[in-house]
Amino acid sequence: MYLIDAHSLIFQVFHAIPEMSSPSGLPTNALFGFTRDLLFLRNDKKPDYLLCAFDLAGPTFRDAIYPAYKAHRAPMPDDLVPQIPLIYQLLEAMRVPVLSKESFEADDVIATVATAAALRGIDVLVCTTDKDCRQLIGDRIQLYNLRKKEAMDRAGLLREWEISPEQVVDLQALVGDSVDNVPGVAGVGPKTAAKLLQQYGTLDNVLANIDRVCATATRKGAWLENLRKSAATVDLSRKLLRLATDVPLEMDWEGWKVREPDNARLVALFQEWGFHRFADQARAQQRQQEPPPRQGMLFPEKIDKETRRQGDKEKEEPAAVAAPRTAWQATYHLVDTPDKFKAFCQQLRTQKRIAFDLETTSLQPRRADVVGYAFCWQAGEGWYLPVRGPAGETRLDPDKTLQQLARVFEDPKVAKVNQNIKYDLLVLRQQGVDVAGVAGDPMVADYLLRAGERGHNMEDLSNRYLDHQVIPITDLIGKKGKNQLGMDQVPAAKIAEYAGEDADVAWRLCELLEPKLAEEGLRKLYDELEVPLIEVLAELEFNGIRLDIPLLEKLGTELAGQLAAIERDICELAGRPFNIASPRQLRQVLFDELKLPAQRKTGITGEASTNQETLERLAALGHLLPQKILEHRQLAKLKGTYVDALPGLVNPETGRIHASFNQTVAATGRLSSSDPNLQNIPIRTEQGRQIRQAFIPEEGWVLLAADYSQVELRLLAHFSGDEELRRAFAEDRDVHASVAAQIFGVPEAEVTSAMRRVAKTVNFGVLYGMSAHGLAARLGMPREEAERFIASYFSRYPKVAEYQSRLLEKCRRERYVGTILGRRREISGIRAESTYQQRNQPEREAINMEIQGSAADLIKAAMLGIYRRLRREKLEARMLLQIHDELVFEVPPGELHAVAALVAEEMTTALKLDVPLKVDLAAGPNWLDVEELAALAETR
After folding, report:
1. C-alpha angle 12/16/20, rounded to 5°?
2. Average pLDDT for residues 395-408, to the nearest whole number?
3. What is the 3-state secondary structure (H, E, C) of 760-827?
4. Taking residues 631-635, what's their average pLDDT?
5. What ranges do the domains of the chain cover?
6. Per-residue pLDDT for 938 more than 90?
7. Cβ(22)–Cβ(89) under 8 Å?
8. 653 has pLDDT over 80
9. Residues 125, 11, 243, 204: what is their CA dihedral angle, to the nearest 10 degrees?
10. Sign of CA dihedral 586, 592, 595, 600
11. Which of these, 717, 672, 680, 670, lies nearest to 860 by C-alpha position?
12. Which DSSP letter does residue 187 get?
């Protein structure tokens, strides 16, 4: 039997796992960790019984004994409160019995059930980190630590506390428990208590021999007198600490046995919460229980989906169990002879809208050769045209086939759709075909419908909307390893079903999802911004950007020398050499040897943390070693992530890095980049800025950088209507200096750089819902002073607070937040009343969504306008990168003035706001050494 102490586990995972949120904006980090651990216990430990004990609200018998019991307990964190009902839903779907009893704590329920189970001959593992439960350890009862995957028995308790389970209550009564406000004996710690119990056996014997204890004590002190007077105190403490084993529960041994979960319900819940890997596992188990028939396929061989077809960058594990296919009525034709191809082309040329899909030799589009083409223009029927494959197979000529198909691909009157169609555009462009008429992508459609969702891959969409599991690619090419086949080594007959299904599923999804977009008022955003943007992103990825590899190699050598010097300084400060990368050794140096104050415990192991925040706090206290460790970590990350890694990502044929720009990742609508993530290159440090120097334009050209000036604050002024903020932007004043003057009560001319830094942090903190605690930590000031700055800000800009309150109230009623172009994100968990200082995660995300989402709308609209004008005006300049609010171009020198003017015009007029938009323009030989083009940076 595994008995879960629910609240113990919930608090563990809540503090151990960073913020997460569901597609609707509800916090889910504790829910995710609890789910993961529950599935681990069920699937890996395979218990006969799995039970979960909860505390109930209200007083217990201990409160009657001692009203101050747990008096100092902090209230449950705001972001944890809405997760508790979801955990109950999970347990119900998992069919895990939930136990609780009025007037008793969960520990008492656990003690009662564990004791009774042990008497029945059942081995019990109590899943908790609560030390009170150590008193339960016995021949058949152990404690199980889910983080360490370790059980504690009598021997383990003896090693750690040097006592037996029978002595646990006595030890705790002597020591007390500050968390639960259980009194102990002042001055008696765990080691002293353990020694007393080792010598006298029980607390009663200690008290009965108090004179002897006082006479033989090796360490004299006030604790001895405290012990002499403690009989009543420790007796009370024992009553509070001893767990009840007689809670009146109905022992339903048969009903408590592990049962099959409600997998259909779990799939729905996991999808709602955005837990895709768990949904896959539940769906696989569901289909395993009820295998459906499979019908109507022309080629019945099983094949898997290629990761590249998914259009998904998530690094989630595949489902643990291979699931059978659902019933699927479809016919897929193999077009592998000139006569079949001629007949196919006659049909293709009559179509006004098609889905097409490429099978290729590589996931990298600029290195990929086409293996075959798949087409669909009506649900349930597809065609596959092989042009490469194993020796001896019949197939079409690659060049002649592409020449014929190009007429359709380049015809803007033929609408084209596919899942992650950007990939296909890039492959065909590499082959010299510029696809026109892109009309849809179900990945993008689903992203707009479910903006907070993290998974929009074809497998998820097919399962969710079509109740069909697509063919997995490992059945086609095998799993990763030396025996994995290339796609051009797979027989065309096997690929035909796989590729035909790709096109068929993409067609069906578009037919299904696009009307849903219209129903939700999102069709215009889809047709006029997001789908046209696919071509723009393909342009950026195809262009790539040149990299100065010798410069990076030089920088790498310099960083290696700096890191070695810092390591020597660190070891000298520590007084000995140690492994800087080892948290255990660093913990030993900082806290055991140097006696620095531990700032926080880790949620996973309970040991002193050595994370970034801890080291920053220690450094702020004036300790040089933590400061040096931080410096070393920063440089090591910079060197490993960028300086050493970037050259390996250069395409040898183009000499450029071709990063991916992801349209369906960020919930706000913002673009992200990957392979590499160029948006995370640090620019606040000198070394980070030097990395930008390695990004260079075409030989003889210049780089042009165009960056929106304070766009999110301008959007805040637009939405809030605050006159003071609007006036600052209308007069083109430095808004950070303006805010500093307001909150410090000084003229703008007297604002110092330190004041401006505070105001800038407050400005953006208000946007992102930063608490006074966060502001204090960021600026290194007392919390009270941070509270004063925030209060001063809202008193000076009252309409900002009014705007945020209106937005939250609207979101609470409508359960979503919209942007300036109608993008939506569903958000739940908004409370009827909340203050700035008490904002929960959904409330912070709601406020952030309208501002950041509208900023995303703005720069996407600008990119689309610039892309179209560069083409229309036949300029050679190329758009290369989109980084946050910045666009980067490479431009022939003779076009610089014209292109800069064009970019400034499109960016400042992309959307109509009630405040002027401003763009900072700069040009130069690389991304670092750019000079401002002042004449073109004026507001419009």
Report:
1. 110
2. 96
3. HHHHHHHHHCCCHHHHHHHHCCCHHHHHHHHHHHHHHCHHHHHHHHHHHHHHHHHCEEECCCCCEEEC
4. 90
5. 2-241, 294-312+325-544, 547-657+666-696
6. no
7. no
8. yes
9. 110
10. positive
11. 670
12. T
486: left (phi over 0), alpha (psi -120 to 50) or beta: beta
Q: What does the alpha-carbon distance between residue 307 and residue 313 come to, in Å, rounded to a whole number? A: 9
DSSP string, 306-355: -HHHHT----PPPPSSPPPPPP---EEEE--SHHHHHHHHHHHTT-SEEE
- Given a contact cutoff of 8 angstroms between Cβ atoms, the answer to whether 708 and 917 are in contact is yes
Average pLDDT, the chain: 87
The answer to whether the beta carbons of residues 562 and 635 sit under 8 Å apart is yes
DSSP alpha helix (H) spans, 679-734: 686-692, 711-720, 723-730
For residue 474, give Cα distances in angstroms to 368, 479, 700: 19, 5, 47
Instruction: For 299, list phi and psi in degrees, rounded to 5.
Output: -120, 110
- What does each C-alpha distance from 69 to 8, 120, 175, 182, 428 come to in angstroms? 18, 34, 16, 6, 71
pLDDT value at position 307?
A: 32
Alpha helices, DSSP H, located in 201-337: 203-208, 210-216, 222-228, 231-241, 263-273, 276-289, 307-310
Q: Which CATH superfamily is domain 547-657+666-696 in?
A: Taq DNA Polymerase; Chain T, domain 4 (1.20.1060.10)
In the chain the first and final C-alpha atoms are separated, in Å, by 70
The residues pairing with 673 across neighbouring beta strands, listed in sequence order, are 661
Question: What's the CA gap between 85 and 91, in Å, rounded?
Answer: 10
For the cut 90, the answer to whether the pLDDT of residue 122 exceeds it is yes
Confidence of residue 254 (pLDDT cuts 50, 70, 90): very high
Cα(675)–Cα(492) distance, rounded to whole angstroms?
Answer: 31
What b/e readout covers 893-904, taking b as 16+ CB neighbours within 10 angstroms?
Answer: eebbeebbebbb
Structure tokens at 884: 């946050």
pLDDT at 97 over 80: yes
Q: Are strands 931-932 and 919-924 parallel, antiparallel or unpaired?
A: antiparallel
Min mean pLDDT across 15-24, 75-84, 292-301, 711-720 is at 292-301
- Rounded Cα gap, residues 685 and 633, in angstroms: 13
Closest to 137 (Cα-Cα) out of 101, 94, 174, 168: 168
Q: What share of the chain is helix, strand, coil (3-state, %, to 5)?
A: 50, 10, 35
Contact 213, 224 (CB under 8 A): yes
Query: Residue 217: which pLDDT band, with cuts at 50, 70 and 90?
Result: low
Supply the pLDDT for residue 601. Answer: 53
E strands, 361-472, are 370-378, 381-386, 415-417, 438-440
What's the CATH number for 2-241? 3.40.50.1010
Does the pLDDT value for residue 10 go beyond 90?
yes
* Residue 171: both structure tokens together: 């030890």
Element (H, E) at 483: none
d(CA 257, CA 274): 29
Directed axis angle between helix 549-574 and helix 624-638, to 10°?
A: 160
d(CA 542, CA 534) in angstroms, rounded, equals 12
Mean pLDDT of the region 716-745: 89
Enumerate the H helices of 330-438 as residue ranges.
338-348, 398-409, 421-430
Superfamily of domain 294-312+325-544: Ribonuclease H-like superfamily/Ribonuclease H (3.30.420.10)
What is the per-residue pLDDT across 698-730, written as a single tens digit (0 to 9) for each?
999 999 999 999 999 999 999 999 998 899 899
Helices (H), 23-80: 29-40, 61-65
* Rg value, the chain, Cα: 32
Instruction: Write out pLDDT tens, residues 152-207.
Output: 999 999 999 999 999 999 988 888 877 777 887 777 778 888 888 888 888 888 88
